[in-house]
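name: query_chain
kind: protein
chains: 1
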Amino acid sequence: MANVIEITDFSAPELDVYARLTEAQLLNRFEPAKGMFIAESPKVIHRALDAGCQPVSLLMERKDITGAAREILERCPEVPVYTADEELLCNLTGYHLTRGVLCAMRRPPLPAPEELCSGANRIVVLENIMNPTNIGAIFRSAAALGMDAVLLTPGCSNPLYRRSARVSMGTVFQIPWTYTPQWPEEGMSLLKKLGFKTAAMALREDSVSVDDPNLMGEEKLAIVLGSEGDGLTNDTIASCDYTVKIPMFHGVDSLNVAAASAVAFWQLGKR
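structure:
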């Protein structure tokens, strides 16, 4: 039977995770072992549970206890379930729970980059991508289009931020990821040591097309994508084995990084 707790006191500290802690506070950089994240929507929560993430509590409308969240509660019978009517929950969270269910979970430990890349043939490297929506969309494409893992530089938005996880449709729990060492020096050195050729996605005169036969024939390839505004740094481009472009038409100069990632993953994931 579900451990249902009716919300009577909005100031209760156990509700801070939903209403008063920022994403940065949930991340808990100073004590990573105590870090948490919020999974939003039944699909995302199920995929987080499938990946072994530990639930701390749930927040939902009463109707979802026997509705959208029923199977989740069957999987987490001992986890506290905080509930109230829609209007009261809106007052608590500041918005309507359009996705129905929230789950506070412990952040899982991240693998070492060497462990992540072991046995991988196609990996993604994200350099300083800050928009959580783009992070989520890139993860969804990476999982769907055959990428084996994702490496992020320290300047990237965290994939377990609520919006990123939601936009990814929970694929942040299906494709392994971690952060690189110091980038680009140590990170690039590690990739080369592990046998990866590196492909910088950048529109330059010396770029090869994304369907270049030599590029597509590489056994182990790391596809490197840059930030939304400035793209990849010059140092990163100079360190890569290939500079790669997606041909453009009608005077369009570039694609959004999430859209570009899907094109690159589709073409370069073929092997």
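note: The chain has a mean pLDDT of 91.
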